[in-house]
Structures are given as structure tokens and as C-alpha cells.
Amino acid sequence: MTFDDSSLPPVLPEDAAALVAAVAGSVLLPGDAGYDEERAVFNLNHELVPALIVVAESAADVQAAVAFAAGQHRPVLVKTTGHQMVGPAHGAVVIATHRMNDVAIDSVGRTARVGAGAIWSEVVERAAKDGLAPLNGSNPTVGVSGYTLGGGLSPTLGRSQGYAADHVRSLEVVTADGELRHVDAESEPELFWALRGGKGNFGVVTALEFALFPVPRLYGGGIYFPGERMADVLRAWTAWHPGTPETMISSFAVLRLPPLPELPEPLRGAFVVSLRFAYNGTAEDGERMIAPLRAVAPAVLDTVRDMPYAEVASIHDEPTDPLPYYERGIMLREFPAEAQDKLVELVGPGSETTLWIAELRALGGAWDREPAVPNAVATRGLPYSLLGVEVGPLSEEQRLKESVAALLDGMEPWRGDRRLVNNLAPDEATDAAAIYGPERYERLAAVKKTYDPANMFRINHNVAPAA
């Protein structure tokens, strides 16, 4: 099923009048005050140009927006922060959810109920007041909903607890028919399975409830070594991490950093490799555990410390302001000595790459285990996630893409057969069967046929309705 959404006509003010009257939030057409602000996304190289934007304040607003889109045969795109967008949304109705950011913590039941527009920093901060922690991502400005629907690979607690999607208790979802559904394992089991891992293919999530964990503190941070010592650090880390407990999460990154004043002085304009750690245990045990890695080479900077969970964003210290970039990731099925040598060749001190970040996350543990209530997450059993990131303006798009491709294509001999949907690029082929594997994709397509037979939710890495 293919669509040419660019041929859809504009929405006329008189067409939108009934929608304006029906919603408590804002309805914006091109040229309206606020339209440009609401269509902006985190990646400055990506642009949304929808026919209409609904800035929703409630589930009822979302229902009205979906009903309007259905009546006009338009696709719907949901945007919280815009960290991952696919396509410019020509002719579409964009539902902006950032005003729906309520966060309610149940400290006794150890759960959070959050609105569709909440971001991770809001949840982490609120939960930490009760000594609790979610399975948040590395960037505090990422939206909770999109991250969780894509699986949610937490670099702080995931190795011992699994994917964020594994711990979702229920969701409130507006489906293509405009109905607001309470979705859990009992009420809508197939939709519940598909939403958790199937990203935004099946409806608009307006709220979700998920488990929290009693983790008030972590031992975590990064050790930065001179880039020239990449091979030594990589080989030491690769030999070390499989023997660590599931309460220890670690990753390896090669960084070619810009000379930005907000970076610590030793890192400005530097070529470094970084080991990042998050250990849910005592600082004494954590320090003892990573001592062999600290001894590999003199550190440029060492930020590993005991910290309150509220400060875990400092471990990866990712940008929180919008910037122009291109990123893409694959999974690795193994990482033998030959693959280690190849990674050094591709991005090490002898390479000519301009890649800003090459990051390798070690998985395993609970990430490999199917949860009590199974879901559509496709990447269990794959031991590594590899991500390449380039930063630069849209005028350099071809160079950015070629730089990331050189890394990922070079590691092709060890590539896994499934993909983490949250690490896919906007322009990647929309062969969702290759993302999820044929059996899982067939089940997703059947759910899609039931809940979105016209493929309203298609501006994504699309699961098409079953024939």
C-alpha cells in the first residue's frame, strides 16, 4: 500500500472551523502564529510541513484530531519532541502532545502514570523524590511515549530489568476509528502486544502506566581516554563486560568532539574514547569492578561517582538543545576480535572519519529475556547495539550519510538480522519485515489491519495492514 501524501490539498480555514470549535487546545494552519514553533523538531536537518497541527490538551482533543484526519483521508503524525521523525508530513495532521505532560507517581504501587507529552527528565525528577527510578533513556529531553513504544533501551537499569516496553502496565490509546481505548493484557491483548515495540503504527497513545524501581542512587559516569589508545581500551572493555553482573551496564564510544565552551576543558575539540558505566550497587563494589579498566591508560577525564538517580543524565551527557545531525544504528550478532580490529580501522586514530560519535552498547541479561507479558520488541538475543552519529547542516547531508554508512557498512559481516526501531534513520527503507523479522511482522500486520486498516498512522517505519 503506497501513498502520495504530497498531493493532498491544503486544509482551508472553513474546513478546520468545526475542529477549532471542538478542541480545547490549538489548531494551527500554515501561516498561523505558532505554526512554525509547533512543527519544529529536535533534529534541525528535519522539517515538518503538515497541513494542520493540533496542539492537544486532552485525549478528547486527540480524538477530535483523528476524526478530522479520517474525514479528510489524511495521515496522522504524533510529535512530542521530534527526536525521531520520518518524512516531512506533507498533507498530514500533526498532533503535538507536549501540553499533555502530567506525571503521577504511585510510591506504594511503584508505578508512574504519564501523559503522552511527558519527557524523561520530568519523570526521573518526580520519581526520584520517592526513591524510585524508571527505565529512562540516556537523553533527558526524549519523550517517554515514543521511546517506550519503540522498546526503550535504558542505559541505567535495562540489563537487569529489560526493555522499558516490558514494564508497561496499560495505555490509553486513540485508534484510527477515533475511539479512546484502555489497553492492557486483558482488555486488548493483541493491541497491547503490538504497541509495546511497534512504535506509532497503531494509534495515538494519550497516557501510559509503567513500573518504577526502588533505585535511589547509582554508581555511574564516564572515563575518557585519549583516542590514540582506542584499541587498548576497546579490547580491555570487550573482555571485561561479559563477566560483570546484570546490575552493571556499560558502553564504549568513540568521540570527535567540537570545541564547544559548554564541554569540560579536557574534552573541547578532542578525539577521545569513553567508557560509560551505570552500576546499581555500592560505590565500593563499583569502584572495585571497574578498577582494571581505569588501569588500561591514563584518563583525560573521569566522572564516575556515586550519584543520586536524578543525575543519571550526566553519565552520557548528551546534547539537550536542538542541533543538525544524522544518525543510524544496527545490531551486532557478535563482536569477535576481527570485528574489534575492523572498528578500530573504521573510526580509530588511523582512520579519516569525521564521525562525531560511534557508540557500542553491550546488551544481554534481561534484554534477552521475554517478559511475563510478551511484546513486539524484536532485538532480544542480539548482544550489541552500534550507533553512528554525524553533526552538520543539511547542506552537507550527503557527507553525513556517507560517514555513518562507512561505519555501519564496514561492520556488516557481524550485523544482526533485526533492528532497534528507535535507532532507525528517517530515510531508511521502510521494510518493516526486515526490522521485526517475518513472523513478528506478520502478527503486527494483522493487528494493523484490525485497528488501522486504512494505514492512517503511516508516517513512520511503517507496518502495512495485512492484505
Automatic annotation (TrEMBL):
It comes from the Bacteria. InterPro entries: BBE, FAD-bd_PCMH, FAD-bd_PCMH-like_sf, FAD-bd_PCMH_sub1, FAD-bd_PCMH_sub2, FAD-linked_Oxidoreductase, Oxid_FAD_bind_N. GO terms for molecular function: FAD binding; oxidoreductase activity. Residues 46-215 form the FAD-binding PCMH-type domain. Its cofactor is FAD. The keyword Ligase does not apply. Keywords: FAD, Flavoprotein, Oxidoreductase. Belongs to the oxygen-dependent FAD-linked oxidoreductase family. This is FAD/FMN-containing dehydrogenase.
